Amino acid sequence: MCIGFICCEVYTAGNTIADAKTNADRLTFIKKLGYTPLCDQPNSKTVNLPEAFYDVYKNYNALQISAGYDLSQYKGCEVTIYTYTINPPNGYTGECVVNLIVYNDRIIGGDISSAALGGFMLPLAREKK
Fold it and tell me: Would you say residue 124 has pLDDT above 60?
């Protein structure tokens, strides 16, 4: 159960509200971040954010905060995570994905990552060219 509504809907690519109601909205967001989606349809799953953040979530939230998000405002909330395959960011190789965390049709966080051996996880920030 979420207590109250906290507005944390600004994203780094243009400082506008990140609407994520439709697939087209989410694809536009990814493109504005400077990434190229390799698929039009995401994998998605619904999860509950934990009510208390321990080491893993504290570390993940630190990544979120570095990009202007804060998942601690959504502890205990049910969110949907949309995962899209993208071209790797500059300096990286292998299969990469963008994970968008959505609450009430708004992007509240996410990451750019690779699960490959020696993979990486980056915040949702504009790709540096």
Answer: yes
Cβ pair 63, 123 in contact under 8 A: yes
Residue 46, pLDDT score: 98
pTM (predicted TM-score): 0.84
Q: Which one has a higher pLDDT value, 1 or 58?
A: 58
Quote the DSSP letter at residue 94: S
Separation of first and last alpha carbons in the chain: 41
**Residue showing tokens 């699960």:** 115
**Helix-then-strand count for the chain, H and E:** 2, 5
Neighbouring residues of 108: CB distance < 8 A, sequence distance ≥ 6: 8, 9, 69, 71, 73, 74, 79, 101, 102
**Close Cβ partners of 92 (under 8 Å, ≥ 6 residues apart):** 114, 120
